[in-house]
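Entry 0007
Protein: Dihydrolipoamide acetyltransferase component of pyruvate dehydrogenase complex
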Amino acid sequence: MAELKEARVPDIGGYDDVPVIEVLVAVGDSVAKDQGLITLESDKATMEVPAPFAGVIKELKVKVGDALSEGSVVAMIEAADAGAAASADKPASAPAPAVIESKDDPIVEPVAPAAKPDNIAEVSIAASQAAQAAEAAPMGAGLPPVRFDAEALLPGKVPYASPAVRLFARELGVDLLQVSGSARGGRISKEDVQNHVKHALQTGGAATAAVGGGGGLNLLPWPKVDFAKFGETETKPLSKIKKISGANLARNWAMIPHVTQHDDADITGLEELRVALNKENEKAGIKLTMLAFIMKASVAALQKFPDFNSSLDASGENLTLKKYFHIGFAADTPNGLVVPVVRDVDRKGVIDIAHETSELAKKARDGKLGPAEMSGGCFSISSLGGIGGTAFTPIVNAPEVAILGVSKSATKPVWDGKQFAPRLILPLSLSYDHRVIDGAAAARFTAYLAQLLGDMRRVLL
Ligand code: COA
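Output (structure tokens):
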């Protein structure tokens, strides 16, 4: 005959008055032996109290928020099998163990004992609490816990969820690292997993990374660290420009699959020309910069490879090809990065381009650029050549599809077929949106650009 039995909180490692944060079953539910009944959460760990035997829940003695200790009655269960109930009807001093998970990583897991005794639960707990865990978790066969380094397996990330939720997620094939927790302290609930699955089904999973999808990245919350604990600090708010450009850069970095193609341009002849022209125009106060030549050469490359002068639409399915050539250039200002745009570069000579870039750069530094002077760009150039460096990875300025990074030119020995000759080499780093541009096209574009800079007469062709 079925027997009504108490399910009590087992040995939970000496914790007292631990709040119930989740009731996993309802009256009338059939439960299997070892199935989680409730989840307790101390400030150090999440613990699941398993059913000591299979049966039907007749009465729940606890609710969310109750504080429980070892021996507290959780539920009255009508045992499915009187024999099992009888064997599970142990004194309160030796009830079924809890499943314990720490909120931190790394994790300690037990070796599955060869002959796993009744109600032995798995244990996961922070290494810092390993000794405590070893005591808290009845190991049955007496095998010691085996440490595994969660940090090594999942660098920087271990999802915070109860064992029942982990099991649920495993059954559905859900990677908990992709799920954001909405419960207290960012803990992932069963509903969070369900919502994640619903969302994935509605949006087609990976398609959420498409342009219009908003990302759906479900990233972990930003780490909150009390730095003052480690030393003196001061708070400095980001400038308005940095806040705006930061948000754009973060979106572009997260949503655009970036690849950067590096190449070198031999600008020995071009630099000679630039120096000669500057000398000729010294009295007129005209200064030709390398940037002006690079802009002009970039437009010639954009004309040859029109996909680089395009934007992807929000559906991620169509390109808008532009028949105009407005080139943005990153300008470093005391308040942060801005990108003024020189319009119709294809119709201007390098002297005009140089004049315009220097005017726009001055306006940028003085904080006097208007929105119209920063809009309409087709392709951007970020030149750090005046500062230094040999290569870098610029971030594509969406909705553009490519950006050229320029580093500092340097004289290098180049083999001319007979001997090494000193040549002035300009490093180019082209980052591009790989959804729009293939690697081969990017290599061709960059090589062509290098060829143009090697002999600017080719721009006329
Ligand atoms: N290699 C070697 N020297 C270079 C060079 C290069 N690629 N590019 C410029 N220089 C030299 C210039 O010839 C100049 O030398 P000079 O004073 O002897 O004539 C010096 O470096 C300073 O040039 P700069 O003032 O940088 O002029 P520019 O026309 O090359 O660049 C800006 C103008 C606006 C792009 C530049 O001032 C700027 O703000 N750069 C930073 C861009 C940035 O922050 N990018 C990062 C985005 S993530």
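Curator remark: Confidence is low (pLDDT under 50) at residues 84-95, 103-157, 204-214. The longest strand covers residues 420-433.
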